[in-house]
Amino acid sequence: MAEDPEAAADGLSGFTVFAASPREDVAYAKVFWNSLSLQPPLESRLVSGDITQRLRVAPAVGSDRCRCRLSSADKKARQKEIAFEMKMKAEQKAVYLEKAKKRKEILVLIQQRREQSIQVSVCWGWGGGEALCVWGEWWGGGGSEQEARSE
């Protein structure tokens, strides 16, 4: 496919000329391009372009026309439901706070045991196996801390 210099001179530079192409291919190409550029017939359109056929916009959700009036019994029932829900949430919150408190206590206990374990292992290494330091106190070896260290 190439552009024809004569067509460009005539002001038809936007068109494509099929030079050295079989007539059958040219016909298929023309049908293809025409099908792409044509609009569908009016009968096949789902909605006409006329504005009068368009539906009105639906009213807002919170408009006064849609609100229904609750009777006093319904209001009392709704208030009871709300009170019950708030009570349940408060109880659930209390349970969660209790669990959080227990968790903190367990973490403190774990930290204390970890520190004690570290102290025991450090003291065990100093005494050469003869003395044992448990929570800062020396056991075994029959003497004071200084004597246990010197052994």
Automatic annotation (TrEMBL):
GO terms for biological process: cilium assembly. Pfam families: HOATZ-like. It comes from the Eukaryota. InterPro entries: HOATZ-like. Belongs to the HOATZ family. This is Cilia- and flagella-associated protein HOATZ. The lineage of its organism: Eukaryota, Metazoa, Chordata, Craniata, Vertebrata.
